[in-house]
Amino acid sequence: MKILDAVKQQHAALTNLRRDIHAHPELAFDEHRTAALVADRLEAAGIETHRGIGRTGVVGVIRAGTSKRAIGLRADMDALPMQERNTFPHHSKHPGRMHACGHDGHTAMLLGAAEHLARHPDFDGTVVFIFQPAEEGDGGGREMVEDGLFERFPMDAVFGLHNWPGLPAGSFAVHAGPVMASADRFDIEVLGHGAHAAMPHLGVDPVVAGSALVQALQTIVTRTLDPLDPAVLSVTQFHAGEAYNVIPDRARITGTVRAFSTEVQSQIEAAMQRICQGIGAAYNVNVRFNYIRGYPATINTPAEAALCAEVAGALVGEGAVRTDLKPSMGAEDFAYFLHEKPGCYVWLGNGPGEGGCTLHNPNYDFNDAVIPTGVSYWVGLVDRLLTA
């Protein structure tokens, strides 16, 4: 299989579509324009269309033949709350909002695949096109699952794709197992007793206790976990005090935890709780600890990963499909889909991440040259899984 000629002919139109979405970014659960654009195009292609799944999500369904086999293909639609620095004509028209992760490209490629398959339904089964809202931290995938996605649209497996700066444009990376980490966060409040900075003996200093706490937390990954279990614990905020000559009465510490298994998540949470209690006793402060579970780890099922690698290899050549890359400590709420169904989430090379063209960077832009590759990959996956 190579890049489909029919897809090549749609390259310019899909590029224009992608750039239109880029110019009009919408944040989590506010993707009304984008969702309407997607739904209108699906309906125009004669595809059964369902709006408002998981609040602002859209689902399209194509049935062909008589087989009961069904697969889901997913793209995310939301942008990030950040200011774009690009000056090209399709830059964001909305200050403080930007497609800095390529969801505009993901949406355009899946729409292109849906429209192609509607014109050429040469398969036997059902394809469910999932256009998901709110991937960037608000759990749109979870919302769609809770809204009955898999009950309303039964499918045997589900597949996702994300562009990946740093990988050669048009190449793929496929992981047989963990591909993205979980994303938890924590809030710690250290309560002491305020005093004049020149009379510290009259107070209980939460800054000193908080500093000791930050240092102690760094021992969890290095001294509590198995060295072969990857994890990250990062303190990202430390807020205390308002004046040079006042010992404050409280300090606030926050951060994030990343791991690839629920067991490691639980180990870290328990260790953090112990350290907070110990620091509280040692420094005579009251430590309030709150651990919030976020996105779970995104873990591909091996059989589906092998199929995706096979399809990608047939498309771009086996040498352009990496199966040896390390997973990312970034997170992805496609994980909620993979908790319900077998499936695989692949990376599509976006080209060198030079000049700031990396994910969540204000100079990022999706590489339009890879659109035909992404569309052809989706079509090839359908052909591989739903052809008798």
Automatic annotation (TrEMBL):
Recorded coiled-coil stretches: none
InterPro entries: Amidohydrolase, Bact_exopeptidase_dim_dom, Peptidase_M20, Peptidase_M20_dimer
CDD domains reported in the protein's UniProt record: M20_Acy1-like
Entry-linked SUPFAM superfamilies: Bacterial exopeptidase dimerisation domain, Zn-dependent exopeptidases
Pfam families: M20_dimer, Peptidase_M20
CC cofactor note: The Mn(2+) ion enhances activity.
Domain Peptidase M20 dimerisation: 185-278
Binding site for Mn(2+): C101, H103, E136, H162, H360
Keywords tagged on the record: Hydrolase, Manganese, Metal-binding
Keyword match Manganese: yes
Cofactor(s), by name: Mn(2+)
GO molecular function: hydrolase activity; metal ion binding
NCBIfam families, sorted: amidohydrolases (TIGR01891)
Family: Belongs to the peptidase M20 family.
Protein name, as recorded: Amidohydrolase
Organism annotation: Denitromonas halophila
